[in-house]
Automatic annotation (TrEMBL), chains A, B, C, D:
PANTHER family: 1,4-DIHYDROXY-2-NAPHTHOYL-COA THIOESTERASE 1 (PTHR43240), BLL4964 PROTEIN (PTHR43240:SF10). It comes from Oceanomicrobium pacificus. This is Hotdog fold thioesterase. Residues 50-123 form the Thioesterase domain. Coiled coil: none annotated. Keywords: Hydrolase. One of its GO terms (molecular function) is 1,4-dihydroxy-2-naphthoyl-CoA thioesterase activity. One of its GO terms (cellular component) is cytosol. InterPro entries: HotDog_dom_sf, PAAI_dom, Thioestr_dom. It holds the Pfam family 4HBT.
Amino acid sequence: MAELKMTAEEVSGFLADVFPQLAGRFEIVELAPMRARVRMRMQEADLRPGGTVSGPSMFALADVAFYIVTLAMIGPQALTVTTNCNINFMRKPAPGAMLGEARLMKLGRSLSVGDVTLTSEGSADVVAHAALTYAIPPQKAGAGG
Amino acid sequence: MAELKMTAEEVSGFLADVFPQLAGRFEIVELAPMRARVRMRMQEADLRPGGTVSGPSMFALADVAFYIVTLAMIGPQALTVTTNCNINFMRKPAPGAMLGEARLMKLGRSLSVGDVTLTSEGSADVVAHAALTYAIPPQKAGAGG
Amino acid sequence: MAELKMTAEEVSGFLADVFPQLAGRFEIVELAPMRARVRMRMQEADLRPGGTVSGPSMFALADVAFYIVTLAMIGPQALTVTTNCNINFMRKPAPGAMLGEARLMKLGRSLSVGDVTLTSEGSADVVAHAALTYAIPPQKAGAGG
Amino acid sequence: MAELKMTAEEVSGFLADVFPQLAGRFEIVELAPMRARVRMRMQEADLRPGGTVSGPSMFALADVAFYIVTLAMIGPQALTVTTNCNINFMRKPAPGAMLGEARLMKLGRSLSVGDVTLTSEGSADVVAHAALTYAIPPQKAGAGG
């Protein structure tokens, strides 16, 4: 369970196929067993008056970063879905790009559990922290994965 | 604390001024002390392949519905911010409009706490449930706010 | 899925067998499909200076009330375990007995999801609110339940 | 804000005074700015059939560990209270002692936010992970703390 089943390139390609609307917003900066660092570029729709990043956009970064690390560990399964997300918002983000550092703490047969720490690019201050659970659909015997 | 300080029209007007990017997406269907029902129209960007609603869009509905009920009870304070949101995603939503039923369980001087139940329009099945906390900024003495 | 598989008496008997250390602390006041109301008597160890109820004791009430409603709907399965619990503590409880009103929002094959609202006996004010998820172990074919 | 205001001995003494019922259960193993490691000895009441640790006992460890790190940073303020706790339970703990590694991610004037990672002594596997928020009461001007 402790090894990557996909490279960053493979995960990016899979995401681009399955969620084309996310294209260009998220970039995998680093990928390692049970860990991923993902960068979110800001678009007009992500910003709020004053230049700060919206809550739903930060939720999206947490969700995508955790999806990426889960996918990289289990292989390409589009049906994997978020079942729980708890976010604490702590500081106002800077208007620029944000980073999400995702960490898997448990990778079971049916659930993947961990957290994502969000920072503004260029600062170590935690902007938000999310704990997430993903449900992994049962594997069909003999399925390619 | 148990009475509305703003009507649905006043809250809608305030939102349109402060968050113009939300215009046309959210509609206050019902507003009562400590309760609000908010409707989210779907836009292309809210949908995922298969026609289902994205997680970040459901987060946005929960967040906006809770902001609306808090604002209606405390009066127009744009600086009120989400500090915690915990969402359980339970069922795949239908592709159409969604409703968020927000309920305040505590309205204190510095925190507003409650939940939002999300359903697809026309169905009673709970699609997602969010518990939220908002921080209310300290009132300036003599402020009209 | 919408009918009870156990009566309050059956659930109480099962709990007393499997968790004898809980005996005398919790009482099922009401049981209906997808809902349960559970009363927690206070013991010395539940109290904090000033007579208030401790956080872990409120967590215990939320957890047991949700276990009871899940069990009543799926039948006696001791291996059902809490996977997530999010609690918001809102008011100081009175020193006496507390009630937990549990509600199932989703009962799937592998997960049960819902919430529990905690009040002090004799007051309608919400003291705490918990959202919970339980994992239900896979049923063995032909098992008695 | 980044320095300890109390030593481990001072925090332990304060806890023993204010929460005498916790005496002997919790031990501060390590204390550093924004971090604490706390050990929970098991008592009969903490265990469940099969020798595993109960959910409420794990909640108690998370809560106490986070209280300790908050207190050590802000000074002795008994009125500091938990407002939110989100726990993910991931693995069955071993029957022995458990460790809680608490980390403050934000220490503001009115809220302290962070997480606690729970492990069984002698194992690196995460048993449970909790995100917590504590409300810090307003400081009286000139108060000794």
